[in-house]
Amino acid sequence: MGSQEITLFDLPSKEPCASWSLNPWKTRFLLNYKGLEYKTEWLNYPEIAPRIRPHLPPNETGRAYSIPTIQFPDGTYVMESRKIAEAIEQRHPSPPVHLDDPTVQSIERLVLRSIRPLYPVLMYKISQVILTDKSYDYWVGQYTREYGMPLDEYERQFGGEKAWAAAQPAMSELTAILKGKQAEGPFFLGKEVSYADFVWLGAVIFVKRTDEILYQELLDRTGDRAAHERLFEECAPWMKRDDY
Hints:
Pfam families: GST_C_7, GST_N_2. The chain has 244 residues and is of the alpha+beta class. The protein has helices at 22-34, 45-52, 81-91, 102-115, 119-129, 133-147, 151-158, 161-180, 195-210, 212-221, 225-234; strands at 6-10, 38-42, 69-71, 77-79. The protein has a four-stranded mixed sheet with strand order 2-1-3-4. α1 links the parallel β1 and β2 (38-42). α4 (102-115) packs parallel to α9. It is globular, with a radius of gyration of 18 Å.
């Protein structure tokens, strides 16, 4: 049976090791929801490129080699969460996750616009509470160079209310879409589970793993805590497998 397993390449956390980053969670949700057989290979940040480079060309934008990456049982490697979702959906179409639905695509954009402004309140905390020793110097050095300052200074200058205010418009729009379907069901498509649920909840888990207080504030800032808690609870079965 092992030869039929998908391999998910994910980022380890400090012990107890569990998945924490928003992009690999999109893929993990898909695998769990579809009930696919898989194993996790944990890669610290300096290990990503050496492990993936022999099998794939670099990404066209962003990091040259990134997580998530998966290897299908036939040996095919796919990198980048959206491309992975399309490949999984093509090979395993049931149950569907409605990748082409306009609402799903809108949520993908809104999640980016909701979470990226919060990086100033997240990055220093990630370095302190999540990163493994093997990842720490690589990751902190990379972002310190990008931001032109230490991560704690980045938080002091750009965090707090500035960050939340920048995230607010997209979060409000995202919440309006979710609330608009509440009469039909708890998901972004009402009664139908979709990739939109996994994209948003991957981001929510990312915040929750980083800091419980920030997670509680995130729920409050959405404008409808109850709707998001309902979504979280309904998708909880596909969050259980997070550490192997």
